[in-house]
Write a structure and sequence with these properties.
279 residues; mainly alpha; two-stranded parallel sheet; 12 helices; 2 strands; 68% helix
């Protein structure tokens, strides 16, 4: 690492650093960095813990400062609203032992209601400007999750529509991945799996995990178990890996029981009619 730093210093020696002339581009770059910082805190890309609260807290602090400096920029406001609405769910994302708790099984009474109220107020105010961008759409999706009393009663059709609009705006394959989950909740797992066909995400563990989840919902338990195992092998976060390994084992056991039951049924079908019991 010391050698790499020395080479970088030598390469940059004598060069001038200049800010981009376009202030909009500068602001967009700052938002991207803050969003990446928050995401790393919300779900750490590696290490023993799911969360890095220090990073997510710092990202929110810096974004509040940015919003103070650019109060009329709707995307800055949208980014801050997104962080607040997402951070509100953090208390329910892990168990007391630190294990990952998926959204469908989270205790929503643990969600931070003051943060949700602040995020909603900020989002509604910036949407009124009618200059919709990426972060405002993401914040709108987060709001739909936060307002829902349960996972099943979430307005999934609206979430799928928002993701479709976001995908057309950004072309980001991760948006397609999230859209597939929402579409599956509305139109069934086959529709979600169809959206994943040909999707390239650099062998992302999230792609394997989502596909495994939809395969499980469609009843293909053997393929789902393989998908969960593939996802577990591709994540560097210990808590995500533990969760995915557990899912692979659970679905594999269900698949084995299903196969055993089918085998027993075939055996009964070839053994002739049942004999009358002798009393």
């Amino acid at each position: 690492m010391a050698q790499r730093i020395s080479r970088a210093k030598a390469k940059l020696r004598g060069r001038r650093f200049e800010l981009p002339a376009d202030p909009v581009a500068r602001l967009r770059s700052v938002c991207e960095v803050l969003y990446l910082l928050y995401n790393e805190g919300y779900t750490s890309s590696s290490g023993p813990h799911l969360l890095r609260i220090d990073l997510s807290t710092e990202a929110i602090r810096l974004t509040r400062m940015l919003h103070d400096q650019a109060p009329d920029d709707p995307e800055v406001a949208g980014l801050l609203a997104l962080m607040l609405l997402t951070e509100a769910r953090r208390p329910a994302r892990t168990s007391a032992a630190g294990a990952l708790v998926p959204l469908a099984r989270q205790d929503r009474s643990l969600w931070d209601r003051p943060l949700i109220s602040e995020g909603l107020q900020l989002l509604n105010a910036t949407l009124a400007a009618r200059r919709i961008g990426e972060y405002q759409l993401l914040a709108s999706i987060a709001a739909l999750h936060d307002e829902a009393p349960s996972h099943a009663s979430t307005r999934w059709a609206q979430i799928a529509s928002a993701y479709a609009r976001l995908e057309s705006l950004t072309g980001n394959p991760m948006v397609r991945l999230n859209r597939a989950v929402a579409v599956a909740m509305v139109d069934g797992p086959a529709a979600g799996l169809a959206l994943l066909e040909g999707l390239e995400l650099r062998d992302s563990h999230r792609l394997h995990a989502v596909r495994a989840h939809l395969l499980e919902d469609s009843g293909d338990l053997a393929a789902a178990a393989q998908g969960y195992a593939a996802a577990a092998a591709r994540t560097a976060n210990a808590r995500e890996r533990e969760y995915l390994v557990e899912q692979a084992a659970r679905v594999s056991c269900s698949s084995a029981r299903e196969a055993a039951a089918a085998s027993a049924e075939r055996c009964r079908g070839t053994s002739g009619p049942p004999q009358a019991a002798v009393l």
